[in-house]
Design brief:
3-stranded antiparallel beta sheet; CofE-like fold; alpha+beta; 7 helices; 60s Ribosomal Protein L30, Chain: A; 5-stranded mixed beta sheet
Length: 258
């Protein structure tokens, strides 16, 4: 029988330049929870972004003509639209949803720019380099605890064809994001040809249940019982499709180009 365990950790309000690895280690100690080698920390990007100063004040944003045009279609604050554009590598759809490729590589609504879990009049952005953020925290945890852990930075994304948001991994350290089943056999002995399991997304989604979307103040989850740690340094980009195989992205671009 296989099993894994997951534990949510409450943290204080995080401020810019806070030592997030140290705060997490201290809160675990306060909860009398001892980390073990191979544990995985799933961390909501919001606290990572806050510690890195990835916050913008709305009144300090000057919208461009493009932002005004999109905002008019969407009945949205053009300053918010400009913040999204500033974090965007490519716009895929600007109306009725604002679907973009964020500069960090994730394709999502509003480039991950959010007005929740931040003070009124401010916006919270995704970390500039979520893999680097995850590595910094993982190395700090090892320095303080001598435990080798994996780290996942998570965000919530919607999904095509389904209602509701789930957790997604946007940055990783020390874990393999994909479990490749190709070449293995199914229960009838047939060889699997295409199955690739998005481990880091599955763990992010499971953790989101314990983090909650409101005022639970539990932005960190420790997962125990899996052996998915890896020295692979390719990071989260391994989970993103390139444009030659991303048929949905190609279809969207083709549709909106006509």
């Amino acid at each position: 029988m296989r099993s894994i365990s997951a534990y949510s950790i409450k943290l204080p309000i995080i401020e810019e330049e806070d030592d997030l690895g140290k705060i997490i280690a201290e809160e675990l100690t306060a909860e009398r929870f001892d980390l073990a080698d191979d544990d995985i920390l799933v961390i909501a990007h919001t606290i990572v972004s806050k510690s890195e100063g990835r916050i913008r004040r709305l009144k300090e944003i000057t919208p461009s003509d493009k932002a005004f045009k999109i905002a008019e279609k969407k009945d949205e604050d053009p300053r918010f639209i400009q913040a999204v554009l500033d974090e965007t590598k490519e716009v895929l759809i600007d109306y009725p949803i604002f679907l973009v490729e964020a500069k960090c590589g994730n394709i999502c609504i509003n480039a991950g720019v959010d007005r929740s879990n931040v003070e009124e009049g401010y916006l919270i952005l995704l970390p500039k380099d979520p893999d680097a953020s995850a590595e910094k925290i993982g190395r700090r945890i090892f320095e303080l605890t001598k435990r080798r852990v994996g780290v996942i930075i998570s965000d919530t994304n919607g999904r095509p064809f389904r209602i509701g948001q789930v957790g997604f991994s946007i940055g990783i350290y020390g874990i393999e994001p994909i479990r490749d089943w190709k070449g293995k056999k199914d229960i009838f002995g047939r060889r699997l040809e295409i199955t690739e399991e998005a481990i880091s997304d599955e763990l992010a989604s499971m953790s989101n249940i314990l983090m909650g979307e409101g005022d639970w103040c539990s932005p960190v989850v420790v997962i125990r019982g899996l052996s998915v740690l890896s020295d692979d340094r390719e990071g989260i980009k391994k989970i993103y499709r390139d444009e030659t195989t991303d048929y949905i992205r190609r279809a969207i671009k083709n549709f909106y180009s006509h």
